Queue: 2 jobs
Job 1
Amino acid sequence: MYEHDVIVVGAGGAGLRAAIAAHEAGADVAMVSKLHPVRSHTGAAEGGINAALQEGDDWELHAYDTMKGSDYLGDAPAVETLAQDAPEETINLEHWGMPFSREDDGRVSQRPFGGLSYPRTTYAGAETGHHLLHTMYEQVVKRGIQVYDEWYVMDLATTDEPDPNDRECHGVVAYDVQSGKIEGFKASGGVVLATGGPGQAFDHTTNAVSCTGDGHAMAYRAGAPLEDMEFIQFHPTSLPSTGVLISEGVRGEGGILYNSEGERFMFEHGYANNSGELASRDVVARAELTEVNEGRGVDDEYVHLDMRHLGEERIMDRLENILHLAEDFEGVDGLVEPMPVKPGQHYAMGGIEVDENGESCVNGLYAAGECACVSVHGGNRLGGNALPELIVFGKRAGRHAAGDDLGEPEIRTGYGDDVEDETDTELPVAPGEAGLETSGSVAADGGVTADAEGILERTVESARERVDHLMEKDDGVQHAEIRAKLQKAMTDYVNVFRTEEGVKKALKVIRECRQEYQDVYVDDPSRTFNTDLQQTIETRNLIDVAETIALGALVRNEFRGAHWRQENQIRDDENWLKHTLISWDDGEPSIFYRPVILEGENKTYEPKERSY
Amino acid sequence: MSTQQAEPESQEAPEDPEMKGAESPQERRLDDKDDGMVDDHAEKEAELEGETVLIKVFRYDPEVEGKQEPRFDDFHVPFEKGMTVLDAVMYARDEYDSSLTFRHSCRQAVCGSDAFFVNGRQRLGCKTQISDLEQPVRIEPLPHQEVVKDLVVDMDHFYDQMHTVEPYFQDDDTPATDDLEEQRQSPENREKIKMSSRCIWCGACMSSCNIAAGDNEYLGPAAINKAYKFAMDDREGEQIKEHRLRILEQEHGVWRCQTQFSCTEVCPKDIPLTEHIQELKREAVKKNLKFW
């Protein structure tokens, strides 16, 4: 058994920042990650970091844009914390040596991004995430922070009180991918989940294959609710063949979208008469698909993104990486022809419910980054707001887990007297039928509350048994088959446009996948670097996460942000200014709601129509 | 840990199926599908009637009998326009042999985990188009690295060398600045370090370097390039620059490079590695540092 004060699971932007912060707060911190830190998906972020750095801009404008962009589903205390802390954190990165793009006077450059009232996106070419990831990993190396790389965390070691608010997380169980050895990691201070997004629940995604929602699923099974999971962002510009991301920076610099008839449809078809291509992502994604559905798509599939008019010099300076991506993955030279693009799954606005300090309702269990929902992005994340989220809330989670007092949070978590319980609501598909019984179990199942070590040992034991079972089983179904089926159903029915009937179909397929998963087996008999085993465990996590996405999409019968419902195409502020929470109780998902907090430090954000 | 090495010299795989003494994993899987899964089999056969690509993939597992002796397995994969080497091995794994093992994650040439030795050259699987390669496509682990299993190599030595050069910003000599004030850096200076900052730690350069292959202590092109990024950044002071150059001009540092350009040739991010190494040699000479 390994022991540390703070265990950070995942080593992308949020995890690295959390580890550095916990280390600076004096904790003995270790990172456990299924990838080596520099392989994390943060490296694929392209656009930039929103921070009010310049005169003429201020954090309140940033907070306002973010609240508006969220379609008033962001919690003001979280949004304001993001906007207030982002400048300091961005400058901090610069002091750590991050190679930001520069103005002639040597200051960092900022550029316009969708939904922003001021050009406040700080960037490093079109490879901001790569530099952010490497800069922070360098700081982890500098501080000598322990990294267990290529260790796959399978489960959390948590006590089993009936109310998740009374539970305590004591550590994690992980297996060494290289040797197959399964071990416990005890955390006396806290566990910070920073495991990234669940993009692999969809088959056309900008996300890495490692983005399998592991943290989401583990926290969910430990009792922390998942919040606003129906809000999945579809990025308007991904390459059609692979899902590779083409940065919003292209539109920020002046890139233009055309349909097959050569029309600049964002204006000509009235989707966003003021902002055009720089309307927020949900608006642009729907506009593109509408063009395709109405027969004005190229090859009935995509639209064109043109940046030729920006000129070679500007492209090479600010968007060079985009030229390489278009060339390598689509065979298109962006200097001489427009690039094909279509919407692709990109980001999960929802995630593990946490407060401004990164803590979930389970004591000692924290989450930060894409796997968490504080919530700052609400119904729709503005481009350039994911990276400041990583550093602002990664840092807070790390500090708090290390014992720093960050004050009483305003955001509440877990089931409590401030929630709206709607167990009476008749769901078209009863959650019980969704059958979560194959989801694995909370660590301390069996009604015994033991000491931290006992709980950890028991969790290790059950993980070993589970792996033995998967390895010893001789035949059955392979995870790849189930995963492909799940991804297809999510893409077919829980995509940019959603209908009640479609979402129900998706839920049905998810249930089938869950059923088939009972018969899953691992063909590779080796304990050495068994990716078959790892992906089999990941697939179970994807099933859990996909189910919460679909359930959320089913119950939220309105149109808000990225969540569009054919039956009800208006935002329903009277009934839906609230977060969807799905928790796992007694082996089935249970749904409740918590009102959104619109009261900020100095003002209340009044919901307005989002026009661009 | 086995010390099995994938030497490019010994890459002659038994071409004769007789010699393998067993059918390929793909044939095995298709045979299995015969049992009660006729439709699926027919579907697969139909798929394979179209254009296919033959990939020969290096296999080795220290634990599994029958895989302890390195060998090549053949897979016929349906070809699609735009298909990459990574797509092909993923197809082979998901459809025919789930034990086929390789690292991969982002699929867009930035995580650096899928560098393989493809048709005799280090390349990133995800950005190498099958249509650019001669068939059969031979896919092996990076040479001169220990093979853990199949295409997975042990990267520890590579990481160790990267860490040797103190790969983190050290700004002790720069003037103190306000908390909310960035350090200034000219666009020209940023441009100077730009290429070096693109390294994704894939290990292709190290694997292609003859010197690194013969001298385990040689810092290698990736680590030297990492040091270049800091040494050439004006935001670090002169004193730390000299400290960095002293690390680089040690016996197994920049002077080991014999300008063979193999690192530069294989770098998937087009970093002028050899040029960076030469520039650091010149800097060391200018500063009258001892050299070997």
Job 2
Amino acid sequence: MTTTEAPAPASGPGPAPSAATDPPAAVRAVRRWGFLLRRLGFYAAAAAAAIVLNFLLPRLMPGDPSSAIVEELQRVSGQQVPPETLESIRAIFGDPDQNLAEQFVGYLGQLARFDLGVSVVNFPVPVSELVLQALPWTLLLVGTTTVLAFVLGTGLGVIAGWKAGSRLDSILTPLTAFLSSVPYFWVALLALWVFGFVLGWFPLSGGYDANLAEGFNLPFLASVMHYGALPAATIVFSAFGGWLLGMRNMTVTTVREDYVLLAQAKGLSRGRVILRYAARNAMLPSFTGFAMALGGVIGGALLTETVFSYPGIGYLLFESLNKRDYPMMQGVFLIVTLATLLANLLADSLYVVLDPRIREQG
Amino acid sequence: MRPSSRGSGLLKGWKVRVGLSVIGFFVLLALLGPWLTSSIPGLDPRANDLTAIGLPPSADHWLGTTQFGQDVLAQTIEGARGSLFVGFLSAVIGTSLAILVGLPAGYFGGRTDSWLNFLSNLFIVMPVLPLILIVAGYMQGTGLWVIALIIGFFGWSGGARTIRAQAMSVSNRDFVLAMRTLGEPHHRLLFHEVLPHLTGWIAAMFLSGVIGGVMAEAGLAFLGISDSGAISWGTMIQAAQQQSAVLRGMWWWFVPPGLCIALVATAATLVNFGVDELANPKLRTVRRSVVRRTRDRANETAVGSDA
């Protein structure tokens, strides 16, 4: 990494860069975009790796969709599958005996057409259609709660860190340490039992009242809110503690820096010192974590959606895994991975806005 | 503070002591559990008592029984072994991989670093849980061994980043540079000079790796990836979920194993708190009485100087 950043020797036309003056605007712009370009390169490589992994995993592992279906057919019918049936099955779900390079070319061609194959369980619905149906639910539920948990945890963390050792801090910090140690799905089970079963305040499963037609009308949206409240609350409840702890510790460290003391000595208002001087700098590590959490949104949806049978992408993966729906597993995994990479890239770009040092030094 | 050795300083904090005691208790439970459950009559985790199906906690069964008439207390004790086994094995694998990737990256720098760092960044951005799930899904009929292997194999990347940063800092210190100039072989420097300086980080990483492993096993078991024959806290919760324990109000089935996981994880967090505070004294919160006393004294001297 360091070799590429070494300053190039001055040559050719243009102002010669000197150590005493600021680098010319063009150089600054290159540095500013250099960071993002390098990240872009990394994510492109990561996406390529994910695609190759997605191609290789099912082929390296025992079991493939075609053989699974053939075995299932033989088990059910009790006789050998006729060759024409075998051929048509392999035409749809892939031939395990085909040469690997040929398979890969065919696979890339399919991907280019956003063809993720056909679901075995919901035959003949394309995997891509099922994924696109489930995606908005996950983005809505886990996306909003991730942001909510981040804002809540970071805010409380600043307060706890600013007043380290205070009564608030000494209650909040150990409590959140405990909260973030509790397995998420267990909290969800408890919540389901208490609020869903014992008290009966919330429905036990699903994303909306199945008697209502889907659409942008008030009863349906209200039902979505009602069904989503408990899953959302459990996510926020078990996620905000981690943010609080990280932010608290960073704030404690930042608050004792000289520039914060100077800001206080200048007589700036307390709120301004906390927000503009202490919190902004303390937040940077938390923000890196937030980038990863954003990336983990879809992966993290797995447990939530499984507990509440929520119609998102995590539940789709869970179902396909239980029913050994290989094309579906593959498709969901690829989409989850690519979405994760995209979210990380977006968060990286935001980071450039937040931390000027990256902009200037690259 | 008087100059004391790091170890004894570490044990002075209540957080570390409480944390280590709790972890020690559960390790003991994992080691002695099978002996306990086999030597106490009526405490067999696998025995199906058909006269006691789905009973709430009572004098006979302290934590009640499952839908299959099994004693929940016995299962919780037995589960400690399964869960901690996965936790420790996956932490050993994950920590070893983290060292294997992070140490040379930080020490050699340059092209070695570029490649190794790319590798760990790749594993950091990949969604690990779905990946583990897919791999475990293809490997049908997995045992606790395989689950621990998979968790460890996909769980090293964050640690590698830490090790890399620390190894980089240690490798650039004068004593390492001097020995390098003297022609000391790399493997000697790596394992005898750089690595010992990272023990604290590695220990902390191992501890959180154990907890991560216990949690991951529970999560995977909950999603149906588990060894159906083995008993762990994860498989207990999964069995409860599958038999609709929530809808039947059988809270005593899934509360104890989850509580045990939470206790072990909290204990580990406490230990890590203590270690953090040792490494970063700014985090040490002062006792309020001390603050008040110091402030009063400062005010007194300020008043005194005004006069």
